[in-house]
Amino acid sequence: MKTLLLALISLCFVTAAQAQWQTTTYTLKGGWNSIYLHGDATHATPDELFAAHPEVLEVWRWNPNPTQVQFTTSPLIPSAGTPEWSTWVRDGSSNSLGQLLGQTAYLVKCSGTNANSYNVAIPQRILPPSAAWVRNGANFMGFPSFKNGSTYPTMGSYFATFPVAIASGVKIYKYVGGDLGPGNPLQVFSPSFETLDRNQAYWFDSEVVGNFYAPIVVTPSNSAGLEFGRTGSTVTVRLRNRSDATVTVAISEVASDTAPSGQTAITGSVPLTLRAADGTESAFSGASVVVGPQSAVEIQFGVDRGQMGTNSDAFYASLLRFQDSGNLMDVLIPARATVASLAGLWVGDAQVTDVASKAATSTGGSTTPRAFPLRFILHVDDGGTARLLSQVFMGTLADAGNPTGLCTKESGLKQDAKADASRMSVGHLPLDQVVTDGSGEVALGATLTRVISIPYNDPTNPFVHQYHPDHDNKDARPDGTNIGLADGVESYSVTRNCNFEFTTSPPAGTSSVGWGSTVIGGNYTETLSGLHRQDITTSGTFTLRRDSEDGAITIN
After folding, report:
1. Best exposed site among 89, 305, 375, 508 by fewest CB in 10 Å?
2. CATH class of 216-338
3. What are the strands, taking DSSP E only, across 198-295?
4. Where exactly are the structural domains of the chain?
5. Measured between alpha carbons, how far is 65 from 136 in angstroms, rounded to an integer?
6. pLDDT per residue over 83-133, tens digit each?
């Protein structure tokens, strides 16, 4: 009852999963069969998974336990009520199995005899491969073997780099349908000739500790696979060759199946990139990697977020397939990415490299001898409003509850927490400015325009000098009075139209790592009015890095 209660509680918290899917069809016979799930099927209960398959009467999950107890005779003959087995029975008489976990072996009992055959499809969220052999020898396992046409590799060839699994004296069993007894499961007497079906689970009584699952070990730097999420940029996959021969591994991307009902819909395959040794990235369209004997190779994959659009609800998922030249293994690694929200605080520089000359006799070009940096602070709130800031404070706020956040003035910080706060500022903008005038948005492929106005009498106006009589905007009279002058007499109002064109790929010479999630940028153009009788245009590139994902800011 306790186990059943825990299973029911766990089901209450099942939510829509962001996953990549593959449906595996298992060929079952009447009686007892064994299957291996390379993916997770916890999106549905066994009642739901087998609703269209009334022939499936019972499902038993093997729970590896280093100190098995309470077997009737051996683990080959399951016994309900022991910790090694969780069970689901269609009539509800024993339901301690609430979900079908991935990378796990199961026994399935079907109606009829082994003369009856059924095809049962199970949609699964593919997981990176794994295996854990236990020393007591009760290993019930499946393996990602390669199906070449209609033929699987032999156990002898597959376990050549892990010979203890099939060594002399090791007993191996497979289920063939029918009642449990002398004819089911059957012992495999000739591993050298027995084929290894990737969808079937086998008993090995080999007393060994290890994690062997394939001749080539495929290890992503993220245990979940190629998990880019909302802000990830690169994932490294390590290929380790266990054999004494050179092996070529073919890598390809496989589209995900349609997500089951109630699960997050998939917009498309992840637009993967492959990173070369020199740091350059190119769209991934398949690759062949040579791995030397007893050696390893690392491959870096990225994601081209410029190909994912700007819809924050879009979810991309696919599978990365690894197949060796010996036709032994077929390993699938999940890949997924979510469209990044660009809300938050962005800080960086525009590199001005071109200034249009206004000299009447100028014969030179507009290119500057070297780039001139202009610092920019940009905040994008959760609603998409973009603000250019002359300064920003990060720390404990004076707001109710004293949350950690952003504000535009020091007065927005908690008084006794200012020592731990940080301040960033922009020297070329007027003081205490929050600029929202303009048009456009912050998004890859879009252009944001912000208009910075510097009044003729602003202390930061380049024409103003409060101690120089010709530049203080005052008309000094003999009687000692000062009359304020209008715009355009001693100084002029200046307007800066700043245009940020966000490109889907980085400017030349800029790293693509994190582009579109933690780094954005593109082409910068600025038109200045008021400094000269003609407008002055400058241009270059810009790069902004995310300093905070907080879409809220206190404007004070």
Report:
1. 508
2. mainly beta
3. 202-204, 216-220, 226-229, 234-241, 247-255, 272-275, 281-283, 287-291
4. 2-204, 216-338, 344-455+493-548
5. 9
6. 789 999 999 888 899 999 999 999 999 999 999 999 999 999 999 999 989
